[in-house]
Protein backbone atom coordinates (compact mmCIF):
# COMPACT_ATOMS: atom_id res chain seq x y z
CA UNK A 1 0.00 0.00 0.00
CA UNK A 2 1.11 3.58 -0.66
CA UNK A 3 1.19 5.51 2.63
CA UNK A 4 -0.31 9.01 2.33
CA UNK A 5 -1.08 12.03 4.49
CA UNK A 6 -3.77 14.49 3.38
CA UNK A 7 -3.64 18.17 4.38
CA UNK A 8 -7.04 19.76 3.80
CA UNK A 9 -9.08 22.97 4.13
CA UNK A 10 -12.05 20.67 4.05
CA UNK A 11 -14.76 21.86 1.73
CA UNK A 12 -16.81 19.90 -0.77
CA UNK A 13 -13.97 18.72 -3.01
CA UNK A 14 -11.52 17.99 -0.16
CA UNK A 15 -14.26 15.76 1.28
CA UNK A 16 -14.34 13.79 -1.98
CA UNK A 17 -10.56 13.42 -1.98
CA UNK A 18 -10.53 12.13 1.61
CA UNK A 19 -13.32 9.66 0.87
CA UNK A 20 -11.68 8.39 -2.32
CA UNK A 21 -8.28 7.95 -0.65
CA UNK A 22 -9.80 6.06 2.27
CA UNK A 23 -11.86 3.88 -0.10
CA UNK A 24 -8.87 2.76 -2.12
CA UNK A 25 -7.31 -0.53 -1.04
CA UNK A 26 -4.04 0.63 -2.62
CA UNK A 27 -3.63 3.63 -0.31
CA UNK A 28 -3.00 3.69 3.41
CA UNK A 29 -4.32 6.99 4.81
CA UNK A 30 -2.05 7.71 7.78
CA UNK A 31 -4.01 10.79 8.77
CA UNK A 32 -5.69 14.03 7.78
CA UNK A 33 -4.43 17.43 8.85
CA UNK A 34 -6.45 20.62 8.65
CA UNK A 35 -5.74 24.18 7.59
CA UNK A 36 -7.85 27.31 7.20
CA UNK A 37 -8.64 28.10 3.57
CA UNK A 38 -12.02 27.40 2.04
CA UNK A 39 -13.44 28.36 5.45
CA UNK A 40 -12.16 29.45 8.83
CA UNK A 41 -10.58 26.66 10.88
CA UNK A 42 -13.66 25.82 13.04
CA UNK A 43 -15.76 25.23 9.90
CA UNK A 44 -12.93 23.23 8.30
CA UNK A 45 -12.77 21.06 11.43
CA UNK A 46 -16.52 20.51 11.42
CA UNK A 47 -16.41 19.43 7.77
CA UNK A 48 -13.43 17.17 8.44
CA UNK A 49 -15.25 15.44 11.29
CA UNK A 50 -18.36 14.99 9.18
CA UNK A 51 -16.26 13.56 6.37
CA UNK A 52 -14.44 11.10 8.61
CA UNK A 53 -17.64 10.12 10.41
CA UNK A 54 -19.09 8.67 7.17
CA UNK A 55 -15.85 7.35 5.69
CA UNK A 56 -13.66 6.02 8.50
CA UNK A 57 -13.78 7.60 11.99
CA UNK A 58 -10.65 5.64 12.95
CA UNK A 59 -8.45 7.74 10.64
CA UNK A 60 -6.69 10.26 12.91
CA UNK A 61 -6.94 13.98 12.19
CA UNK A 62 -4.98 16.91 13.62
CA UNK A 63 -5.57 20.62 13.88
CA UNK A 64 -3.34 22.93 11.87
CA UNK A 65 -2.93 26.60 11.02
CA UNK A 66 -5.84 28.99 11.52
CA UNK A 67 -4.26 31.61 9.30
CA UNK A 68 -1.58 32.04 6.64
CA UNK A 69 2.06 32.75 7.55
CA UNK A 70 2.02 36.49 6.88
CA UNK A 71 -1.37 37.53 5.57
CA UNK A 72 -4.86 37.76 6.97
CA UNK A 73 -7.02 34.78 6.02
CA UNK A 74 -8.91 35.16 2.75
CA UNK A 75 -11.76 32.62 2.57
CA UNK A 76 -14.68 32.00 0.24
CA UNK A 77 -16.55 34.03 2.82
CA UNK A 78 -19.67 31.94 3.23
CA UNK A 79 -20.26 29.45 6.03
CA UNK A 80 -20.21 25.74 5.38
CA UNK A 81 -23.43 23.92 4.62
CA UNK A 82 -21.79 20.60 3.90
CA UNK A 83 -23.55 17.40 4.95
CA UNK A 84 -25.54 19.20 7.64
CA UNK A 85 -27.53 16.07 8.45
CA UNK A 86 -24.37 14.65 10.06
CA UNK A 87 -24.42 17.30 12.81
CA UNK A 88 -21.28 17.67 14.91
CA UNK A 89 -19.75 14.18 15.20
CA UNK A 90 -17.97 13.43 18.42
CA UNK A 91 -14.50 12.56 17.11
CA UNK A 92 -11.58 14.12 18.98
CA UNK A 93 -8.51 15.40 17.15
CA UNK A 94 -5.06 13.97 17.78
CA UNK A 95 -3.54 15.86 20.73
CA UNK A 96 -0.57 16.91 18.60
CA UNK A 97 -0.91 19.84 16.24
CA UNK A 98 -0.88 19.16 12.49
CA UNK A 99 2.84 19.85 12.03
CA UNK A 100 4.04 17.63 14.89
CA UNK A 101 1.52 14.96 13.91
CA UNK A 102 2.92 14.86 10.36
CA UNK A 103 6.50 15.02 11.63
CA UNK A 104 6.01 12.02 13.95
CA UNK A 105 4.35 9.97 11.23
CA UNK A 106 7.16 10.73 8.78
CA UNK A 107 9.83 10.00 11.37
CA UNK A 108 8.29 6.69 12.43
CA UNK A 109 7.62 5.41 8.93
CA UNK A 110 9.99 2.85 7.39
CA UNK A 111 9.09 3.95 3.89
CA UNK A 112 8.77 7.45 2.44
CA UNK A 113 5.27 8.94 2.58
CA UNK A 114 3.36 10.79 -0.14
CA UNK A 115 1.90 14.13 1.01
CA UNK A 116 -1.36 15.29 -0.56
CA UNK A 117 -1.78 19.02 0.17
CA UNK A 118 -5.26 20.18 -0.85
CA UNK A 119 -5.46 23.63 0.74
CA UNK A 120 -3.20 26.61 1.41
CA UNK A 121 0.34 25.31 2.02
CA UNK A 122 0.78 26.84 5.50
CA UNK A 123 1.16 23.58 7.48
CA UNK A 124 3.45 22.05 4.86
CA UNK A 125 5.77 25.10 4.81
CA UNK A 126 6.07 25.03 8.61
CA UNK A 127 6.71 21.28 8.57
CA UNK A 128 9.56 21.63 6.05
CA UNK A 129 11.06 24.62 7.87
CA UNK A 130 10.83 23.07 11.34
CA UNK A 131 11.96 19.57 10.32
CA UNK A 132 14.17 19.81 7.24
CA UNK A 133 15.71 16.43 8.12
CA UNK A 134 12.34 14.83 7.36
CA UNK A 135 12.33 15.95 3.72
CA UNK A 136 13.93 12.67 2.74
CA UNK A 137 11.01 10.81 4.31
CA UNK A 138 8.62 12.51 1.87
CA UNK A 139 8.34 10.51 -1.35
CA UNK A 140 6.65 13.38 -3.17
CA UNK A 141 4.02 16.05 -2.64
CA UNK A 142 1.08 15.78 -5.02
CA UNK A 143 -0.46 19.21 -4.64
CA UNK A 144 -3.80 20.61 -5.75
CA UNK A 145 -2.94 24.22 -6.37
CA UNK A 146 -1.60 26.68 -8.87
CA UNK A 147 -1.94 26.90 -12.62
CA UNK A 148 0.28 27.32 -15.65
CA UNK A 149 -1.86 29.89 -17.44
CA UNK A 150 -4.52 31.77 -15.50
CA UNK A 151 -6.07 31.85 -12.06
CA UNK A 152 -9.49 31.40 -10.48
CA UNK A 153 -9.19 33.80 -7.55
CA UNK A 154 -7.37 36.60 -9.34
CA UNK A 155 -6.65 36.64 -13.08
CA UNK A 156 -3.31 35.02 -12.34
CA UNK A 157 -3.62 33.13 -9.04
CA UNK A 158 -5.33 29.94 -8.00
CA UNK A 159 -7.09 29.95 -4.60
CA UNK A 160 -4.85 27.65 -2.51
CA UNK A 161 -1.68 29.45 -3.56
CA UNK A 162 -3.27 32.91 -3.38
CA UNK A 163 -4.31 32.41 0.25
CA UNK A 164 -0.74 31.75 1.45
CA UNK A 165 1.79 32.64 -1.27
CA UNK A 166 4.75 32.80 1.12
CA UNK A 167 4.08 29.26 2.31
CA UNK A 168 3.71 28.08 -1.29
CA UNK A 169 6.96 29.81 -2.22
CA UNK A 170 8.80 27.91 0.54
CA UNK A 171 7.27 24.62 -0.57
CA UNK A 172 8.17 25.05 -4.26
CA UNK A 173 11.73 26.01 -3.23
CA UNK A 174 12.10 23.09 -0.81
CA UNK A 175 13.68 20.58 -3.16
CA UNK A 176 11.11 17.92 -2.30
CA UNK A 177 9.65 16.33 -5.49
CA UNK A 178 6.42 18.10 -6.43
CA UNK A 179 3.55 17.16 -8.70
CA UNK A 180 1.39 20.23 -9.32
CA UNK A 181 -2.23 19.42 -10.12
CA UNK A 182 -3.34 22.90 -11.09
CA UNK A 183 -6.33 24.43 -12.79
CA UNK A 184 -5.49 23.02 -16.24
CA UNK A 185 -5.76 19.35 -15.26
CA UNK A 186 -8.70 20.10 -12.94
CA UNK A 187 -10.75 21.10 -15.99
CA UNK A 188 -10.87 17.37 -16.61
CA UNK A 189 -12.23 16.62 -13.12
CA UNK A 190 -15.76 17.69 -14.07
CA UNK A 191 -18.59 15.52 -12.91
CA UNK A 192 -22.28 15.76 -13.81
CA UNK A 193 -25.64 14.64 -12.40
CA UNK A 194 -25.17 11.23 -13.96
CA UNK A 195 -22.21 10.61 -11.64
CA UNK A 196 -24.30 11.77 -8.68
CA UNK A 197 -27.11 9.35 -9.57
CA UNK A 198 -24.66 6.50 -9.99
CA UNK A 199 -23.29 7.20 -6.49
CA UNK A 200 -26.83 7.16 -5.06
CA UNK A 201 -27.59 3.92 -6.90
CA UNK A 202 -24.60 2.24 -5.22
CA UNK A 203 -26.84 2.28 -2.16
CA UNK A 204 -24.26 2.32 0.62
CA UNK A 205 -24.73 5.20 3.10
CA UNK A 206 -21.43 6.89 2.20
CA UNK A 207 -22.02 6.86 -1.54
CA UNK A 208 -25.63 8.01 -1.06
CA UNK A 209 -24.55 10.93 1.15
CA UNK A 210 -21.89 12.01 -1.37
CA UNK A 211 -24.26 11.58 -4.30
CA UNK A 212 -26.87 13.78 -2.64
CA UNK A 213 -24.21 16.33 -1.71
CA UNK A 214 -23.07 16.40 -5.31
CA UNK A 215 -26.64 16.93 -6.57
CA UNK A 216 -27.09 19.83 -4.13
CA UNK A 217 -23.87 21.40 -5.36
CA UNK A 218 -24.75 21.67 -9.05
CA UNK A 219 -25.32 25.19 -10.16
CA UNK A 220 -24.34 24.90 -13.80
CA UNK A 221 -24.96 21.19 -14.42
CA UNK A 222 -21.35 20.26 -13.69
CA UNK A 223 -18.94 20.50 -10.75
CA UNK A 224 -15.17 20.35 -10.70
CA UNK A 225 -13.82 18.05 -7.99
CA UNK A 226 -10.42 19.79 -7.89
CA UNK A 227 -8.98 18.04 -4.86
CA UNK A 228 -9.71 14.55 -6.14
CA UNK A 229 -7.16 14.99 -8.94
CA UNK A 230 -4.05 14.25 -6.81
CA UNK A 231 -5.72 11.06 -5.54
CA UNK A 232 -6.54 10.03 -9.12
CA UNK A 233 -2.95 10.80 -10.17
CA UNK A 234 -1.44 8.69 -7.38
CA UNK A 235 -3.72 5.74 -8.15
CA UNK A 236 -3.59 6.04 -11.95
CA UNK A 237 -0.70 8.19 -13.20
CA UNK A 238 -1.31 6.73 -16.67
CA UNK A 239 -4.54 8.75 -17.07
CA UNK A 240 -2.74 12.07 -16.43
CA UNK A 241 -0.46 13.87 -18.92
CA UNK A 242 2.43 15.68 -17.26
CA UNK A 243 5.28 17.98 -18.26
CA UNK A 244 8.38 19.05 -16.34
CA UNK A 245 8.77 22.78 -15.67
CA UNK A 246 10.42 25.20 -13.29
CA UNK A 247 7.69 26.77 -11.12
CA UNK A 248 8.11 29.64 -8.67
CA UNK A 249 5.43 31.52 -6.72
CA UNK A 250 5.14 35.30 -7.06
CA UNK A 251 5.45 36.78 -3.58
CA UNK A 252 6.22 40.32 -4.69
CA UNK A 253 2.69 41.36 -3.81
CA UNK A 254 1.73 42.96 -7.11
CA UNK A 255 -0.95 42.18 -9.63
CA UNK A 256 0.12 38.56 -9.93
CA UNK A 257 0.61 37.80 -6.23
CA UNK A 258 0.23 34.07 -5.69
CA UNK A 259 0.75 33.19 -9.34
CA UNK A 260 2.66 29.92 -9.90
CA UNK A 261 4.94 31.38 -12.57
CA UNK A 262 5.76 28.44 -14.84
CA UNK A 263 8.71 28.57 -17.20
CA UNK A 264 7.28 27.05 -20.37
CA UNK A 265 9.76 28.77 -22.69
CA UNK A 266 10.41 26.54 -25.66
CA UNK A 267 14.05 27.46 -26.22
CA UNK A 268 16.77 26.91 -23.71
CA UNK A 269 17.87 30.04 -21.88
CA UNK A 270 21.15 29.88 -20.03
CA UNK A 271 19.60 31.65 -17.05
CA UNK A 272 16.68 29.22 -16.82
CA UNK A 273 16.63 27.13 -13.64
CA UNK A 274 16.21 23.38 -14.01
CA UNK A 275 12.65 22.03 -13.77
CA UNK A 276 11.53 21.52 -10.16
CA UNK A 277 7.93 20.43 -10.74
CA UNK A 278 6.00 17.76 -12.59
CA UNK A 279 3.00 19.70 -13.88
CA UNK A 280 -0.20 17.79 -14.61
CA UNK A 281 -1.66 19.27 -17.78
CA UNK A 282 -4.66 17.10 -18.61
CA UNK A 283 -6.45 13.92 -17.57
CA UNK A 284 -8.74 11.33 -19.15
CA UNK A 285 -12.08 12.78 -18.06
CA UNK A 286 -14.09 9.65 -18.52
CA UNK A 287 -11.66 7.47 -16.58
CA UNK A 288 -11.66 10.02 -13.75
CA UNK A 289 -15.46 9.81 -13.48
CA UNK A 290 -15.33 6.02 -13.55
CA UNK A 291 -12.66 5.93 -10.84
CA UNK A 292 -14.73 8.18 -8.60
CA UNK A 293 -17.80 5.96 -8.82
CA UNK A 294 -15.73 2.77 -8.57
CA UNK A 295 -14.05 3.87 -5.33
CA UNK A 296 -17.36 4.68 -3.61
CA UNK A 297 -18.53 1.15 -4.38
CA UNK A 298 -15.97 0.02 -1.76
CA UNK A 299 -17.98 1.51 1.12
C1 LIG B 1 -9.04 24.82 -4.56
O1 LIG B 1 -9.57 25.86 -3.73
C2 LIG B 1 -10.56 25.34 -2.88
O2 LIG B 1 -11.74 26.05 -3.07
C3 LIG B 1 -10.80 23.91 -3.28
O3 LIG B 1 -11.03 23.12 -2.13
C4 LIG B 1 -9.55 23.52 -4.00
O4 LIG B 1 -8.60 22.99 -3.12
C5 LIG B 1 -9.41 25.10 -6.01
O5 LIG B 1 -8.85 26.30 -6.46
CA1 LIG C 1 -9.18 22.31 -0.86
UniProtKB/TrEMBL annotation:
Pfam families named in the record: IU_nuc_hydro
GO biological process: purine nucleoside catabolic process
UniProtKB keywords: Glycosidase, Hydrolase
GO cellular component: cytosol
Name the UniProt record assigns to this protein: Pyrimidine-specific ribonucleoside hydrolase
Occurrences of domain Inosine/uridine-preferring nucleoside hydrolase (ranges): 4-288
Database matches in InterPro entries: Inosine/uridine_hydrolase_dom (IPR001910), IUNH (IPR023186), Ribo_hydro-like (IPR036452)
GO terms assigned for molecular function: purine nucleosidase activity
Superkingdom as given in the UniProt entry: Bacteria
Keyword Acyltransferase appears in the UniProt entry: no
